[in-house]
Amino acid sequence: MSSTTDIRKRRTPQSSASTPSATPAYGSAAKKLRTPIVMATRSKWIVLALASGACAAFNGVFAKLTTTDLTTSIASSIASAFHFAPDNKIVEFLVRGTFFLLNLLFNAIMWYLFTRALTSHTSTTQVSIVNTSANFMLTALLGAIIFSEKLPGLWWVGAGLLVVGNVIVGRRDEGDKKKNGGGLGAGVGGSEGLVVGGGGGAAASGGIEGVEREELLGLGGDGEVRESLELRGEARRTREGVLVNT
Question: In whole angstroms, what is the distance from residue 83 CA to residue 88 CA?
């Protein structure tokens, strides 16, 4: 029986040390593979939301150019360049029609990009915030450049408050999603880990029993082998019961 105890002491640490070694390696590899995918997904919805906001801003510019007096000056310059009369109504009609078609085109592109951004991200609030902020700021910039609009200081104060409010709402929405989904994800992950760990433990236990049986057959008769295996089986079942209860 002393030799049996020595064999068990030699075998048990090796098997217990080798069993969990695969889990950290697998986890680190999965984490390295998952990180670029997560980063790409995050940057994708931001780019789409910014692009949709920019298209919305250009949509507004072309809509205004369809009806404003500035388009008359633009049409006169184009007519003079082609040696037509500056007040040629056909040229002006074509210019206004072009701006109207561009208005429809950018409107369609804006909705397409906005829909793609919504499907690429889990939070509709954050997508709307980025879209609205980009649209708001770029519209002000284009209005100042193209239409020579002057923005008072109060407008910039209001724009700053709008951006700050959007950021606060977006962070609160993200925090709520983490609280609601964190517990469920941890529970599922823990259950999967227990199932995987249990399978590995059962396989390791089966391998240990096979090795112990072969070595004990070389040391004694069948009676001693049976008695020793029964005692070890009882001890193993006791340990497993304690682990399950804890």
Answer: 11
Q: Cα–Cα distances in Å, from 69 out to 64, 76, 124, 147, 216? A: 10, 11, 38, 10, 102
Measure Cα distances from 41 to 7, 55, 92, 133, 197 in Å: 53, 21, 45, 20, 31
Helix or strand (DSSP H, E) at 154: helix 153-219
Say how many residues make up the chain. Answer: 246
- Compute the CA torsion angle 6, 11, 16, 19 (nearest 10 deg): 180
Statement: the pTM of the whole predicted model exceeds 0.90 = no
Task: Residue 23: name the closest of 200, 187, 184 by CA.
Answer: 200
Q: CA of 104: how far to CAs of 97, 108, 208, in Å? A: 11, 6, 73
pLDDT tens across 74-123, in order? 999 999 999 999 899 999 999 999 999 999 999 999 999 999 999 998 88
User: Quick one: which of 44, 49, 40, 46 has its CA closest to 113?
Assistant: 49
Express each pLDDT in 112-141 by its tens digit: 999 999 999 888 888 988 898 899 889 989
DSSP structure class, residue 147: S
